[in-house]
Write a structure and sequence with these properties.
Oligomer: single chain
Distance between the termini: 28 Å
Helix content: 55-70%
Strand content: under 5%
Number of helices: 7
Amino acid sequence: MPTVITHAVVGVGAGIIVQGTDMSARFWTLSVVCSILPDADVLAFRLGIPYSHWLGHRGFFHSVVFALIKGPVVTSVFFSGLGMFSEKWWRLAVYFSLLGASHGLLDACTNGGLGIALLSPFTNHRYFFWFTPIEVAPLGVRAFLSEWGLAVMMSEFLWVWLPLGLAAVFCRWALELRLLPRV
């Protein structure tokens, strides 16, 4: 998996791309939380749930179905004043769902682990993409503070942070020129 740092950067970068910087702290917090939330499934290890189980690490909580559920739930709970199913509500629901989906998709670009159950609960088959340039991150702090951790961060910078930064600059420019709509 990419590091929690990179998943959080994706949340912030996505917020800048679609909205700019004039949203509430709640929007920014939820952007980061929705990006990293699937990794809460590492608790499955402590609960004795095997990695390969549909509720194990990189299982259901990394799936597209979970992402599709998460967006409307987050929007309904944290933006209840918008009016259910209004245009703004839908835009935020789709945005938070896409952030959730980004987690599993990025993890499927890593070069380690058992793969991602992107289509759970319909199948627990674990997938990787054909292109896996991102070094899989270690789970422990000690391993992260090693040569392996440095290689992971360099890989994430090259394959996630740099493209995301360029996309954010381009989209901010397009938003300023009103070539793109705001969320």
